[in-house]
Specification:
With about 60 residues, the protein is mainly alpha-helical. About 45% of the residues lie in helices and about 10% in strands. The chain has a two-stranded parallel ribbon with strand order 1-2. The longest helix is centred in the C-terminal third of the chain and has 16 residues. It is flat, with a radius of gyration of 12 Å. About 10% of the residues are buried.
Amino acid sequence: MVIADQDTLTPADIALQSYAEALEPKQLSLIPGPHFAVYEEQFQRASSVARDFLLANLSG
């Protein structure tokens, strides 16, 4: 799960609670910035984390 740590549209504390309740396999990545940072200035970092997780857990 990729969470923007300063998100006010989808508050980080609610997202973290959802992560805690999610079943395995799971992985958490906190990205610095507000909601849209993961689509803009932090896109490379956020997309790499998501890609790596999917490759590790869906291949095979």
